[in-house]
Amino acid sequence: MADGLVEELRATCEGAVSAQADLSAHTTLRVGGPARVLVEAQSDQDLAAVGRACRDHGVPWLVVGRGSNLLVSDRGWNGVAVILGRGLRGFEVAGITVTLGAAEKLPVAAVRVANEGLSGFAWAAAVPGSVGGAVRMNAGAHGSDMRDVLVEVDLFRLRTGVRETWPVDTLGLTYRHSELPDDAVVVSATIRLVRADAQTIRAEIDEIKQWRRDHQPINEPNCGSVFTNPEGDSAGRLVDDVGGKGSAVGGARVSELHANFIVTEPGATASDVRALIGRLRQAVADEHGVWLRPEVVMVGQFDDDGPGTGLEGS
Questions:
Q1: CA 268 vs CA 33, 53, 124, 239: distances in Å
Q2: Between 159 and which of 33, 179, 183, 289 could a Cys-Cys bridge form, CB atoms 3.0 to 4.6 Å apart?
Q3: Cβ-count burial of 59 within 10 angstroms (0-12 exposed, 13-18 middle, 19+ buried)?
């Protein structure tokens, strides 16, 4: 049976439109169910088409980015999922400012910035996400984050079909959080850096990459840090302290390299990951009286959704 939503998007989008698309292929955990529709947006026009279609058909949208901090339920996403295509990449230097397209990969952007002799963005080499996702989550590593360098962002509003420019002080950026509206898709970000020796910056990036290889499970499917760090402490330390390292539910396991990382094996499910997250939260709460806040964004319907779980899906 034809899906009118799919047909409308195929008629109005330049980018590829896929029905019942496997979202596990678009998240770094490699688990989760299908999206009713997946759109690879290449332009503002594609994003406008997504917004119109979602409004007309009464379905939700989901911007996936690189899927590096995303857990999609096994039931999938009964709406339109969006990934940003090559048309929404970009790298433009003007003095000590750089404007980056939202689809740019952070580690790649970090190296390109270093090659321009600009310092202050080397930390991004440690974050396996996109520029757009980094703005929305105020991503960071090694004591720095997007808030430290960001000047302004361009947002495309799915509800109105309008592109807007927001200065950094209007974004409500705090630790791993922003106050961006749910219909605001980051399409570009402008950062301000400082001049430095390119070779020195590249050496810093090499050290950061080596640190990741030594301390994080970069060769296994994972979603990055599972929990935000509670004030004055480390989520990884707390999970390790309650014996969490190496524990597993189904095909999901806490990494032996870093207790704030969950890795998945072939055959793992989103429910496995979700259950392991819940088990770790409960163990830390029982032992230390601290409820860890998940950094990973969970979307779709899970069997244990409900008030009080702290793991409600969207």
A1: 12, 33, 29, 21
A2: 183
A3: middle
Contact assessment for residue 41 and residue 67, using Cβ atoms and an 8 Å cutoff: no
- How buried is 300 (Cβ within 10 angstroms: 0-12 exposed, 13-18 middle, 19+ buried)? buried
- Low-confidence stretches of the chain (pLDDT < 50) are 306-309, 313-314
Report DSSP state, residue 292.
P
Q: Residue 313: its pLDDT value, please?
A: 45
Residue 234 burial class via C-beta count within 10 angstroms: exposed 0-12, middle 13-18, buried 19 and up? middle
**List of domains in the chain:** 4-86 (3.30.43.10), 89-214 (3.30.465.10), 235-299 (3.90.78.10)
DSSP 120: S
Please, are residues 215 and 259 in contact by the beta-carbon 8 Å criterion? no
Residue 80 three-state SS: strand
Residue 24 CA to residue 168 CA, distance in Å, equals 32
* Residue-level pLDDT at 1: 54
Query: According to the model, what pLDDT value does residue 237 have?
Result: 97
Amino acid at 85: G
Q: Dmax of the chain from CA atoms?
A: 60
For residue 105, what is the DSSP state?
Answer: B
Contact between 23 and 77 (Cβ < 8 Å): yes
Give catalytic residues, as residue numbers: 176, 225, 295
Q: Are 123 and 140 in contact (CB under 8 A)?
A: yes
